[in-house]
Amino acid sequence: MAKITSNKKMTNSSRRWLEEHLDDEYVLRAKREGYRSRAVYKLLEIDDKDKLLRPGMTVIDLGAAPGGWSQVARRRIGEQGRVLALDILDMDALAGVEFMQGDFREAEVLDAMMKMLANSTVDLVMSDMAPNMSGVRDMDKIRAMYLVELTFDLAKQVLRPGGDLLMKVFHGPGYDQLIKELRACFDRVVTRKPKASRNRSSEVYLLARGFRL
Question: How far is the C-alpha of 187 from the C-alpha of 209, rounded, in Å?
Fold first, then answer.
């Protein structure tokens, strides 16, 4: 295990997280294989199972930084496809990925993304977004659900008929209602918990397929 040193005092939970992160098999694998984050293995597992990404697709990647999911999408949809990535944080450029920095919760940022699309439709909206956690569990889950609802709203505006939506969700207030609303708009809704998702995390990925206008 790597030795952790710091000039600043660390909490026990912070120290445990850092030590776990440094020894994480997916973190080490991502470094070896040239990916920007361990999160790529969540998307890769889902895509291998559900065959989401296909050559020539147009994909929106929300909460994209540092760019791992955009890397996977770019490689799997090929040069004829299109990836539009958005995050409140900056992201180093990726060949073939159109990145916009902005706060997804702001109307002007969504308007700018719609202008990038120029009235074209999208095959897949995917989101690995999560709010900055405050440590107040109930409040954090409410904030996370708000991002999910915004993602769902965007998907309903931009998806082509038959398109797909993949998004990270935390169990909590509004979860059951969300499932009900997704089923009203899509042919099929399933839950995925990839192996790379840490066991202690309440996150799951909802995959909604076959968008209906």
Answer: 6
Mean pLDDT (whole number) for 62-78: 97
Active site residues: 168
- Helix then strand then coil, % of the chain, to nearest 5: 40, 25, 35
Provide the domain limits for residue 118: 39-211
* 21 within some domain: no
CA dist., res. 191 & res. 195, Å (int): 13
Angstrom distance (rounded) from CA 74 to CA 58: 10
Give Cβ neighbours of residue 174 (< 8 Å, ≥ 6 apart).
142, 145, 149
User: What was the pLDDT predicted at 140?
Assistant: 83
Following CA atoms 39, 65, 210, 163 in sequence, which dihedral angle do they give, to the nearest 10 degrees? -140
**Within a domain: 1:** no
pLDDT tens for each residue of 97-144: 999 999 989 999 999 999 999 989 999 999 999 877 776 777 888 889
Q: Beta partners for 186?
A: 211
Q: What is the CATH number of the domain that holds 152?
A: 3.40.50.150
Mean pLDDT of the chain: 88
